[in-house]
Design a protein that fits this description.
- The complex is a heteropentamer of chains A (174), B (508), C (725), D (480) and E (100).
- With 174 residues, chain A is mainly alpha-helical.
- Chain A contains seven helices and no strands.
- Chain A is 75% helix and 0% strand.
- Chain B is mainly alpha-helical and 508 residues long.
- Chain B has a domain of 238 residues.
- Chain B contains 20 helices and two strands.
- Chain B has a two-stranded antiparallel ribbon with strand order 1-2.
- Chain B starts with 6 loop residues before the first helix and ends in a 5-residue tail after the last helix.
- Chain D is mainly alpha-helical.
- Chain D has a domain of 218 residues.
- In chain D, helix 3 packs antiparallel against helix 4 and helix 17 packs across helix 19.
- Chain D starts with a helix and ends with a helix.
- Chain E has a domain of 66 residues: Helix Hairpins (Orthogonal Bundle).
- In chain E, helix 2 packs antiparallel against helix 3.
- The chains are: A mainly alpha (174), B mainly alpha (508), C mainly alpha (725), D mainly alpha (480), E mainly alpha (100).
- Chains in contact: A-C, A-D, A-E, B-C, B-D, C-D, C-E, D-E.
């Protein structure tokens, strides 16, 4: 077992554990915090996978902005868990069963049927961060100009949408 | 203009003029609407007579052909293709004749939503004539389905108490029947690269086993429409609930769409399969004859009796068609007309008395002849025509059919069936006498039934027919005698086409 | 447009007018009759029939000018399709001319008679308006009969054949709302339907015969068929002839289809005379005679026909002897005599058969009409009696009919205890011989003409019936011993029941007030009777069994081919005459020596079961009900209600097809379709649907998590398929 | 960015800019006169439509193969723009009547159309994904647009949650495809697949993509949101959603699968087959039990997704795929017009607070508003596939194509389910014509015009379907 | 030198947990978070693949996905807040009045 692998396994363990933590926590705030941990772990993976820019984005946008937004909302709406009242008795067993099946299929596919080959580049061999950033920037504004613009529109629309949904109608109040 | 002025196009679509005119008549003016519809339908009849005048019976080809490409793209080859020949001309005339008669028959019976009613009738006429005249399978299917819609409304809006049920049943059954036909049509269109019926017939070359499947697919649609035993279950419901004119058209023309389908499509398109299927269809026809006659006798309701009698009569038609000799087929075609006239007239008459008494139960009838002598006499003539009294129209058809069927039995067309089909079917002649006379007896003979008093209680006295009603049936009476005594002109129209059709069959 | 080869066609062109005249007559009466007086209507109808008679005579002249050679006159095309080619062609030859003369001659007389008869009949039955209808039907009958006998092909014959059947239906059911005793009832109409249906059974045979014939001979035209007889297998011809026999049994009331004829007496008496005695019922005989070349070529079939005729003759004669209704006796007598004719033509004795047909037409028409006269006389007597009562009691005029009923109930006391006829005693039955007696005094003309008919029918020389019957017996004695003895015994019974009738009706004392007050009929009735009586007495002269007197035989030769003209056989003639006289003597001993008294049991009752059988028509109606009619009704209802409706319509189509549909769709088409159901349906799907919607609608439960689950399920299934396939 | 790049997305650009400007202009328009916004947005759509049609015949690929402009995209975009126009027309009076009139409605609708158009043009999975989101997010908002109605909110939430859930699968699918082919560009994928044997990973990725699209077009078993959302959303939104989202979803599905994955057609055909059959059956059968017209039409929309999907079943069969897909496009057109018409009638009858939506509220419509009832009848007939409507022609093309491709049983299922569908569609007609009632309908110019136009198109095109089918065939020609 | 399939399997696990979260949790926020986890898992897979091919496009795609996620969050949270305003609950099971 190389150091790389050990690190990977450790991080993987943390990622899975934090994901499960999010899943199981009765308290919404805990869930959110577990998710933040998970995102951060993934960000570390990105670093390991020589994608420092994405790692940064992951931390700032995801763990930072998005999850903070989540926490705001949680605080706004109250974090206490919901009362235990299951109206769908079959939902949980079925859900777990199907999820297990899904994973089993994925595992079977990935392990025996169609195993992705190749190794990820070790971080040491990766291009340094600045170069990576530069290349990314160039690609983004040259090759991927259109998606980039689309995303900008998308964000605009989301903004408009959020406003439309939450803005108090002055007329309605009157 | 050239497109519009073609005789066949005009026959089919002239009622549209009426539909458009009706749209602009205010709904209060009911009489204007009735007169408009009547005038247009009579005009359509006149146009069909013009077609008859131009028709050359000795020519076995399609005549007055109108043929335009309609959809021809990406392997599709659908045409606006009309044509008339001896197989269809009489049916067109029947349609155009029965439509004004039906309109006239509901002059007073329909007081609600007259506009829609008349529109639906004219639309129905378009659909029926379309079915008889188109020579493109695709277009045929469209008209075929189209006829369902107005009839559905006519039953469903102006029908009896269980009208919605009956309308839906009518619709679903006939539509279910046409599904398989649609697939078969598509198959043919794909396989033959065209939907034109004459071209497909000329191409031939469909393997025998596939022919059988296609034959069954077409037959499914037609057999339900006919209706052949045992697919007749929708018929009594539809007839009982339909308004008088609806029944007239249903019995008079719509059922003929099925039998016509057999002779127009099944036989020429799938000759080998036809030969194989002949004994089976004849068997079903024979069972239908006997079964329909037996069941008719036991009906408590006049309309139901007539409905079941149609099962029996159309059994004759099917038997004649699949005798596959000129006598049988020509007889069957003539019998389609006869059945349209006789049963149509019967439904008309039943409607006339129903309008007065509001009941169709035999139980309460009796002795009506005394009160309604003219009606009784007319009813008797029509009944006799329906039971095939020689000298009236029904006999000519039944005799030629049975004669043909007997010959087919002797010549091995029916294989194992032999002459038994014709022989047993002839028993149907006895049974027809039983149920028809029973009906006549129960309604018109015997002591006066309760219905007379019942009707009086509601402040109406039963009266004999008025002039409008007499005028409504007289054309049919004339035809009853005409075809019975001098069918030569009719046979002359049919015969060349039938001989041609028989000539194309690979008979043993 | 004539097809006859002979140069001199004479009046042949008039042949279609045999049909047209009556048709014109009936059209005039139908369309304008409502403006005519009764006399006018009668005159139009009689003239129409008379014109047909004149045409018949002219045609006779024409044909006799051509020595009986067949002539044909084509009027129009009929059915031409495939190899079938039929025309409206009239055939005039000696056979058809003979029939024409009989039909139109007797027919015209009966028309005239009916003017008088129906005048009273419609008044007795309170429907004056029906007078016109009767003559329309009668003219229609003449027209149909003419088509029957002048048709040049089997199918045209069939048109007339069924046409007369229709007229029979119409006329039997003439008083369709009454029964024999003029009470409101279904019975007359049943009799009418029975007549038509029984005929149709026979027609079925006729049809099948034509099918076989067409495919064997390629034609239905007489000459073409007969020419080919030698070339066609005898088996086929046997089939044809036997199927024709079925038709004959229906139309000519032979065993086993004779049952309709007695009931057909529900029709007015002129109808019984014309249709059910003189003309229509002989159509079967005519058919066999017409098909002589076919029958002659197959002796097997001939024997069967002869036996059927002979059995019928005897069987019906026994029943006739046990009847009390004056017309029923005559009806069974007719069946019996038709048996003679059928037996004759069956044996190849076509001339004898036709001869008997002609003489029978005379005397049986005479008897029926006389019986009608008797009945009318009784009615009148009853009417007077009722009036007398009425005047005594001084009741209002409107109560008259009720009063009659009342009287009738009072008369119940003298209804007999044998009471086979339940109707008897309810109301006055003018046709019941037990109510009669001594009528010779009150109705002398009727009595004398009746006597003429009686002796002719009984076969007493030298009256017409003797000659014709004797010729049949003679032929039978030579061709078919079994038939001969059956017919001879039948002849005995014939004389017996006629004697019985005469004694009961005309002799002794009046057994009922009505009989005592009976009144002779008017001239319009009696004159035709006298003419018919003369024919009945002298009709035998047509074909006397002496050399040179075989007029009819020679006349018919042209059509029927060479016929043997037998001389009088004294043995045969002697036996039959002696038996007839003996029978009359016995009847005298039983019914006249000590006159039949008011409440007396029939002397024959001492025969026990045998008489019961005769009286109850050997229970044939009951047997038919048991064997055919009831099963048919039961089976029909079973098929209609159980199989077609409950099983096929309700269970299969509703439950299985629609039910499956409903089950799949979790809704009720039925429920929905019913107007009531629509409302229930519309008022929110209700608990019913909810409970049924166990799966689909419950799956669509509104929970977003469940929807996600469904998506996941789809994913797992698709991936599973793709990975593990 | 080059000239050709711009050409490729010219209509999209115009519409985007227009929408952005409208967002600002809307601020200047007084609250009571938001109709102006509607008119302006309609104008924008019309102008774009003009440009789109002007581009017929062009064939350009731009942005390094990210998007393409071809016959197919022009056809679909034109249809989308027409849908947008019809959607605006339906909304004009409706949202005013329902008290939810705000200018953003129209801008969001425009943005959604932009997303849809991009989706039809996208040739890179990244763009596909972004376009999908761009069309979805406005729809989420629009579904919840009637904020004071809980139903509307519920619809929005359900749509959003499930939409996001399914796009999770979509992204994972793209990930797997990327893993299998090293690229997200569909041209590159084709190249990759043609040089190396496709792996199972690609198949699975494609399947997950299918799930994302399947959700948008509402096929079984990804359909369950449909009835709830369609019922809850404001009717004008529903009308737009049923058409627009379906067109875009199918367009992308078709382009991606037909262009990039013909290699896995053998497997996917079976999947399509089953999904299509299940969708037709379930949609039609479930619709029978509905009493709410919106739910009924929702299930009808599911069913029709099944029919359209039928056209894609033989997508790997080169000889028939062109006609088959053309038939699918034709059917889409037929469905769009019929569907808008039907929704137009629904809108005309809808009252405040969700009233007027039960089937019984249609009782007596034929007497009170014969024209409306007649139009509805036409739409119902068209949805069944009966003459004289475009629906019949569409079905016939479709069934023929499917039979031609050898999927007779699928055609049989299609036809059989059509019969089932006849029942519930005709029920509407029955109620309109054969029951008595006092329905009240809003008669409003734009609405009536829409209904009239769609009814006319539904009938008239059924007589002259040739040009449309020719266009559809032309459009798909270069796709394969 | 970690084989790429390790990463992919990890991402599959995370993805499955996300899916499970959507299915079993009733809290709208947690469901939403689970969806974010699914996206995250997908991102991880993309980056891992991209690292093998030494391709940028993977990373760029992830960048866009994150942006989209942000957009979704904006709208989604707005919706949830709206729902909370009217229902006083963020239990998705409460949001189930439309059904059938």
């Amino acid at each position: 077992m190389t150091l790389d692998l050990a690190l990977f396994l450790l991080l993987a363990l943390i990622a899975i554990a934090s994901a499960l933590g999010m899943l199981i926590s009765r308290n919404t705030v805990y869930s959110a915090l577990y998710l933040v941990l998970n995102f951060v772990t993934v960000a570390v993976f990105y670093l390991l996978l020589s994608a420092p820019f994405i790692a940064m984005v992951q931390i700032t946008v995801y763990a930072g902005a998005i999850m903070v937004l989540f926490l705001f909302v949680i605080m706004l709406l109250g974090a206490e868990g919901l009362p235990k009242s299951e109206v769908l008795p079959w939902q949980k067993p079925l859900a777990i069963g199907l999820s297990v099946l899904l994973f089993a299929e994925a595992a079977y596919l990935l392990v025996t049927k169609s195993r992705p080959v190749g190794n990820v580049l070790p971080p040491a061999e990766a291009v340094n961060a600045t170069e990576n950033l530069q290349q990314l920037g160039i690609a983004l504004f040259r090759d991927y100009l259109l998606p980039f613009e689309v995303v900008s529109i998308l964000l605009l629309v989301a903004m408009v949408g959020a406003i439309v949904l939450t803005k108090k109608e002055r007329k309605a109040r009157q | 203009m050239e497109f519009i002025l073609q005789p066949l196009t005009l026959v089919i679509f002239f009622p549209l003029v009426g539909v458009l005119a009706l749209l602009f008549i205010p709904s209060e003016n009911k009489n204007a609407m009735r007169w408009t519809a009547l005038a247009v339908s009579v005009a359509t009849f006149v146009i069909s007579l013009w077609v008859l005048g131009r028709f050359d019976a000795s020519n076995t080809d399609l005549q007055m052909v109108a043929r335009y490409n309609w959809i021809t793209v990406a392997g599709w080859n659908i045409q606006y293709f009309l044509g008339i020949d001896g197989l269809s001309i009489l049916l067109v005339l029947l349609t155009t004749l029965l439509t004004p008669i039906s309109i006239l028959s509901t002059w007073t019976a329909v007081e609600e939503r007259v506009k829609e009613y008349m529109i639906f009738f004219l639309l129905l006429e378009i659909g029926m004539n379309g079915v008889f005249l188109v020579q493109d399978l695709f277009l045929f299917y469209i008209f075929w389905e189209f006829t369902l819609v107005p009839m559905y409304f006519i039953i469903g809006i102006w029908g009896g108490p269980r009208r919605i049920y009956a309308a839906l049943k009518f619709f679903l059954y006939t539509m279910a029947g046409s599904i398989l036909m649609l697939l078969a049509i598509l198959w043919l269109g794909i396989h033959g690269k065209t939907f034109s019926l004459p071209d497909l017939i000329a191409q031939g070359g469909i393997p025998a086993n596939i022919q059988m499947w296609l034959f069954i697919a077409f037959a499914a649609a037609f057999a339900i429409k006919v209706p052949m035993w045992p697919l007749h279950s929708w018929l009594p419901d539809a007839h009982v609930e339909a308004p008088t004119a609806g029944s007239v058209i249903l019995a008079g023309v719509l059922l003929k769409l099925g039998t016509y389908g057999f002779v127009r499509f099944n036989i020429p398109l799938f000759p080998e399969a036809t030969l194989q299927a002949a004994p089976w269809i004849a068997l079903l026809g024979t069972i239908g004859i006997i079964y329909g006659a037996a069941v008719s006798y036991a009906q408590p309701d006049i309309k139901k009796l007539v409905a079941y009698s149609s099962v029996s009569h159309l059994g004759f038609v099917m038997l004649g068609l699949f005798a596959l000799n000129p006598e049988g087929i020509a007889g069957a075609i003539l019998q389609m007309i006869n059945h349209g006239i006789s049963t149509g007239a019967l439904f008309l008459l039943v409607g006339m008395v129903y309008e007065q008494t509001h009941t169709r139960e035999f139980r309460v009838y009796g002795g009506l002849w005394k009160i309604m002598p003219v009606f009784g006499a007319i009813y008797l003539i029509v009944s006799l025509s329906s039971m095939g009294l020689p000298g009236l129209n029904g006999f000519v058809g039944e005799f030629t059919i049975l004669l043909g069927a007997w010959g087919a039995g002797q010549n091995g067309i029916f294989y194992w069936g032999g002459v038994w089909f014709a022989g047993i079917s002839a028993i149907g002649v006895i049974m027809a006498a039983i149920y028809i006379l029973y009906m006549f007896q129960k309604m018109f003979m015997g002591p006066q039934g309760e219905v007379v008093e019942e009707t009086k209680k509601h402040g109406r006295a039963i009266r004999d027919l008025n002039w409008r009603e007499i005028v409504t049936v007289v054309p049919l009476l004339i035809l009853i005698f005409w075809i019975g005594l001098y069918p030569a002109p009719f046979f002359n129209l049919i015969a060349p086409a039938v001989n041609h059709l028989v000539g194309t069959l690979p008979l043993p | 447009m004539h097809l006859s080869e002979s140069v001199n066609t004479g009046f042949l062109f008039l042949a279609p007018w045999l049909v047209f005249f009556p048709v014109i007559g009936l059209l005039i009466n139908t369309l304008f009759g409502h403006k005519f007086s009764e006399r006018m209507i009668g005159a139009v109808a009689s003239l129409a029939s008379g014109a047909a008679f004149v045409v018949s005579v002219l045609l006779y002249v024409t044909v006799s000018g051509a020595h009986g050679e067949a002539m044909r006159w084509q009027l129009a095309e009929w059915m031409h399709i495939g190899t079938l080619s039929l025309d409206w062609t009239f055939r005039v030859d000696s056979l058809s001319t003979t029939m024409m003369l009989v039909v139109s001659g007797v027919g015209t007389l009966i028309h005239i008679y009916a003017i008088g008869y129906m005048h009273e009949d419609v008044r007795f039955k309170n429907d004056v308006g029906r007078f016109r209808r009767f003559f329309v039907f009668l003219n229609l009958f003449i027209a149909a009969m003419m088509v029957l006998i002048t048709g040049d092909s089997y199918l045209m014959l069939f048109v007339g054949w069924e046409g007369v059947g229709l007229c029979s239906f119409l006329l039997v059911g003439f008083w369709y709302e009454l029964d024999l005793l003029a009470r409101p009832s279904w019975s007359n109409s049943f009799a009418a339907v029975k007549a038509f249906v029984a005929n149709r059974v026979g027609d079925f045979g006729f049809l099948i015969a034509t099918f076989i014939m067409f495919w064997a001979f390629g034609s239905l035209q007489f000459d073409k068929v007969f020419q080919q007889v030698p070339t066609v297998a005898p088996g086929v011809i046997i089939a044809i002839t036997l199927f024709f026999l079925l038709g004959v049994t229906g139309k000519s009331a032979q065993v086993p289809l004779y049952v309709w004829l007695p009931d057909a007496m529900a029709g007015p008496t002129p109808v019984s005379a014309l249709i059910h005695a003189a003309t229509m019922v002989t159509a079967g005989v005519y058919l066999v005679a017409r098909s002589a070349p076919l029958y002659s070529s197959v002796p097997e079939a001939q024997n069967i026909v002869a036996l059927v005729g002979a059995v019928t003759a005897l069987f019906a004669a026994t029943i006739a002897a046990g009847q009390f209704d004056i017309k029923k006796v005559l009806a069974y007598s007719t069946i019996s005599q038709l048996g003679f004719m059928v037996a004759a033509v069956g044996m190849g004795a076509y001339v004898a058969g036709i001869f008997h047909l002609v003489t029978h037409a005379f005397f049986k028409a005479l008897l029926f009409l006389s019986a009608g006269s008797v009945i009318l006389g009784m009615e009148r007597g009853h009417h007077h009696a009722a009036h007398a009562n009425h005047d005594n009691h001084g009741k209002g005029k409107k109560g008259k009919r009720k009063e009659e009923r009342h009287d009738a109930r009072a008369e119940r006391s003298h209804s007999d205890s044998e009471g086979a006829d339940e109707a008897h005693g309810e109301v006055f039955d003018p046709g019941d011989m037990r109510n009669m007696g001594g009528l010779r005094k009150t109705m002398p003309v009727t009595f004398w003409v009746y006597m003429a008919g009686m002796v002719a029918l009984s076969g007493i020389p030298p009256f017409s019936g003797f000659w014709s019957k004797d010729e049949i017996l003679l032929d039978a004695s030579m061709h078919n011993q079994a038939a001969y003895w059956l017919l001879t015994i039948a002849a005995f019974f014939t004389a017996f029941y006629m004697g019985r009738q005469i004694w009961m009706v005309f002799f002794g004392e009046a057994r009922h007030e009505a009989a005592a007050r009976a009144e002779e009929s008017p001239k319009v009735i009696t004159v035709p009777l006298i003419i018919l009586a003369a024919l009945a007495v002298l009709g035998g002269a047509l074909n006397l069994p002496f050399e040179g007197f075989h007029n009819l035989g020679h006349w018919l030769e042209a059509t029927l081919g060479e016929v043997e003209s037998l001389p009088l056989n004294l043995q045969v003639a002697g036996i039959s005459t002696l038996l007839a006289l003996l029978a009359i003597l016995i009847s005298w001993l039983m019914y006249a020596r000590k006159p039949f008294a008011k409440d007396q049991t029939d002397p024959l009752a001492s025969l026990g079961l045998f008489f019961k059988g005769m009286n109850n028509k050997w229970w044939m109606d009951e047997l038919y009900h048991l064997l055919f009619i009831n099963p048919y009704i039961k089976i029909s209802y079973f098929i209609a209600e159980v199989i077609d409706w409950r099983f096929w319509h309700d269970w299969f189509h509703e439950k299985v097809i629609m039910g499956t549909y409903n089950w799949i769709s979790f809704t009720g088409l039925n429920e929905y379709a019913d107007q009531k159901g629509i409302d229930a349906f519309a008022n929110g799907l209700g608990t019913w649907t909810q409970s049924l919607a166990g799966t689909l609608r419950k799956v669509q439960n509104g929970f977003v998590r469940s929807y996600a689950l469904s998506i996941l399920l789809g994913v797992v299934l698709i991936l599973g398929y793709l990975i593990f396939k | 960015m080059t000239q050709s790049d711009l050409t490729t997305i010219l209509p999209v650009t115009i519409l985007t800019v227009w929408a952005c400007v409208l967002l600002l202009v809307d601020l200047l328009i007084p609250k009571t006169r938001k109709g102006i916004t509607a008119l302006l947005s309609a104008l924008g759509l019309a102008v774009t439509l003009g440009y789109t049609l002007a581009q017929i015949g062009s064939e350009v690929t731009g942005f390094n193969g990210m998007v393409t402009l071809d016959g197919f995209s022009i056809f679909v975009n034109a249809l989308l723009l027409v849908s947008g126009l019809l959607g605006v027309a339906l909304a004009y009076g409706y949202i005013k009547r329902m008290g939810i009139e705000r200018g953003e409605y129209y801008t969001l609708l425009l943005f959604s159309v932009v997303g849809m158009m991009l989706m039809a043009q996208a040739t890179d999975l990244i763009v596909v994904f972004l376009a999908l989101e761009l069309l979805s997010i406005p729809l989420y908002v629009l579904a919840a647009f009637a904020r004071d109605k809980t139903d509307s909110e519920e619809a929005g939430l359900k749509y959003f949650l499930l939409g996001a859930f399914s796009s999770g699968f979509l992204v994972y699918g793209i990930a797997l495809i990327f893993g299998a082919t090293h690229t997200t560009n569909i041209f590159a994928i084709v190249e990759f697949v043609s040089t190396s044997t496709g792996s199972l990973l690609l198949t699975i990725g494609a399947a997950l993509l299918l799930i994302g699209f399947g959700f948008k077009v509402a096929v079984v078993p990804f359909h369950m949101w449909t009835p709830d959302v369609y019922q809850g959303a404001p009717t004008a939104v529903t009308a737009f959603m049923t058409s627009g989202a379906k067109i875009a979803g199918f367009a992308a599905l078709l382009r991606v699968f037909a262009t990039a994955f013909p290699s896995i057609a053998a497997d996917m055909t079976n999947v399509f087959w089953v999904i299509s059959a299940a969708t037709m059956i379930l949609g039609n059968v479930a619709a029978v039990a509905q009493t709410d017209i919106k739910r009924l039409l929702a299930y009808s929309s599911i069913a029709h997704a099944g029919y359209i999907l039928m056209a894609f079943v033989p997508y790997g069969n080169e000889t028939v795929v062109a006609t088959s897909v053309a038939a699918g496009l034709f059917y889409l057109v037929a469905y769009v017009f019929t569907n808008f018409g039907a929704w137009g009638v629904v809108i005309a009858l809808e009252k405040e607070a969700g009233k007027g939506l039960a089937l019984d509220d249609y009782a007596g419509l034929a007497k009170k508003h014969p024209a409306l009832a007649a139009a509805m009848t036409i739409f119902m007939l068209s949805l069944i596939g009966l003459p004289p409507t475009i629906g019949l022609i569409g079905k016939l093309y479709l069934f023929r194509a499917v039979i031609d491709a050898g999927f007779v049983w699928l055609a049989i299922i299609g036809v059989l389910t059509s019969v089932v569908s006849a029942f519930y569609y005709l029920r509407v007609v029955v109620i309109m014509y054969m029951k008595d009632g006092e329905p009240a309908a809003e008669r409003e110019t734009w609405l009536d015009t829409t209904t009239l136009v769609t009814a006319l198109v539904t009938v008239v095109v059924s007589f002259i379907p040739q040009f449309l089918f020719a266009w559809a065939s032309e459009a798909v020609l270069k796709l394969f | 030198m970690i084989p790429v399939d390790y990463y992919i399997i990890l991402s599959a696990i995370l993805f499955t947990i996300g899916v499970l979260g959507v299915l079993v949790r009733r809290n709208a926020l947690i469901i939403f978070m689970s969806i974010e986890l699914m996206l995250n898992a997908a991102n991880l897979a993309i980056v891992a693949f991209g690292s093998v091919f030494e391709s940028f496009s993977g990373q760029i795609f992830v960048f866009f996905v994150i942006a989209v996620a942000a957009a979704e969050v904006a709208v989604g949270l707005a919706l949830i807040v709206e729902i909370f305003r009217s229902k006083r609950s963020i239990d998705v099971d409460q949001v189930s009045s439309l059904k059938g």
